[in-house]
Amino acid sequence: MNKLRNPFGPTRTNLAPLYQSGDRPTAAENMDRLPVEPTTGHPLAPREQPGYYPGYRTLAQQAYWDEATRTVVLDRVNHVPPLRFFSEAEVRVMQAVVDRILPQDDRIPTKRIPILNTIDKRLAEDIQDGYRFEGMPKDQEVFRLGIQGIEAIAQKLYQRSFAALTVLEQDRVLETLHDGNPPAGEEYWKQMSVIHFWQLLVQDCIEGYYAHPYAWDEIGFGGPAYPRGYMRLERGDPEPWEQGEQRYAWAPPPGALSGRFAPLGVEAGGKTPTPGQEGTH
Asked: Within a domain: residue 78?
């Protein structure tokens, strides 16, 4: 496979997300990103810790971890990887994409998980699964092609960059990838499977999010149990150091497609896609 030229320019090293003039969401658009109270429709204010376990802190258990585990986990909180792989223009697109695949608008800014930085680190250091779908380029090239394909769809449908679109417009662009039917960017999708790109993109977002202790707090995960181990192995009972659920009512933002479910689309040939990167290599 020939090395893919990066048409978006040189990579960047600082951490702040970039927006061009007109790309940053307005106050009204930010309100459209928030989950709502279902009976009133009023937006729910961002929280330091969303989820059903208020006050729970996985890091409160760090004294029970071995030194190696504690070092790895604390590094995820204290050191955000610098952006080295994506260019400035690619960061604008990718940050907007990540913000729609796994929105964090219910979190206050200082408690948001740096998903994009985690993906960038994996690509910059060429960390691969060791296998990939037959016919798919290496992951670095997949992301370069995918970003260009997303921009082509945004321009085709709305004549603007993906980062400048509204929440609903961004969701509709990404929906075409989920459905395996992008309306533009054929020159990019003919070099790789759009469905396999979508799976890889979503997988990377999920892994970057749920590897972080802030996400563990959100779902009530007790964190590493080594060397202490688990005590309660039946009936799903929480461990003594865990916390019971305190549920509250919420609904997805009304100006987004995040409340809908649809099966993953199929591409030409009609084969049902396989989750993850497993398959014929």
From this structure: yes
Give the chain as a DSSP string.
Answer: -PPPP-TT-SB----SPP--TTTSPPHHHHHHTS-B-TTT-PBPPPBSS-SS-TT--GGGGGGGB-HHHHHHHHHHHH-PPPP-SSBHHHHHHHHHHHHHHS--TTB-GGG---HHHHHHHHHHTT---S---TT---HHHHHHHHHHHHHHHHHHHHSS-GGGS-HHHHHHHHHHHHTT--SS-HHHHTTS-HHHHHHHHHHHHHHHHHTSHHHHHHHT-----TBT--S--STTPPPTTS--------B--TTSSTT---PPP--TT-PPPPSTT-S--
Strand partners, 11: 87
In a domain, 159, yes or no: yes
pLDDT single digits (tens) 124-179: 999 988 888 888 999 999 999 999 999 999 999 999 999 999 999 999 999 999 99
One-letter identity of residue 174: L
What is the average per-residue pLDDT within 50-60? 93
- Rounded to an integer, what distance in angstroms lies between the CA atom of residue 78 and that of residue 143? 27
- Structurally, the chain folds into a number of domains equal to 1
Residue 202 belongs to what domain range?
A: 27-219
Query: Does the pLDDT value for residue 91 go beyond 50?
Result: yes
Residue 93 lies in a domain: yes
pLDDT of residue 108: 96
Q: Given CA atoms 70, 72, 73, 74 in this order, what sign does their dihedral have?
A: positive
